[in-house]
Amino acid sequence: MRGHEERAILRAVEGYAEGFIREDMRLLLDLWDYRAPEGVSYVAAELDQPLSGAEELRAYYQSFLDTLIVHGGEVTNPRIFLKGDMAYVFCQFNWVYRVRAGGQVLEQPTRATFVLRKRGGRWLYQHFHESISFHYEAPSAPGLVGTVVQ
Questions:
Q1: pLDDT of residue 136
Q2: Label partner for 137 (CA 20 to 30 A): which of 37, 49, 54, 144?
Q3: Three-state secondary-structure class, residue 135
Q4: How far is CA 114 from CA 26, 66, 93, 117, 138, in A?
Q5: What region holds the SnoaL-like domain (predicted)?
Q6: CB 51 within 8 A of CB 57
């Protein structure tokens, strides 16, 4: 049963990219659990404040659909933690898109964290948080030893 649930959870996460690729507002909005008493929240990588509720999500999604053409949003490195009717997912989206007004195709790796709840047989988002992913190589310890800052 656990494998079946994890596949269903992964399909719910992949639905986010599918909604943008298909330019399907209904699909995007139907991913969320609006009946949750604590509400829903989304922290987009480019925003300083979380979005909350269907109307804020709709306005945000519409701005993206009006501005960008999404060609791909592959989900990679998923880690799923299943806790009864709750699931926590950590993954990366590898977005491929371009601006509608013209321009080159761009790629953007994005780190994502989801909190989902199973309701009515479906896994729905309660919270989703994105952050920009980039490669960082820490300096080696010997290079730091003896460094004096004046």
A1: 72
A2: 49
A3: coil
A4: 19, 25, 12, 10, 28
A5: 10-132
A6: yes
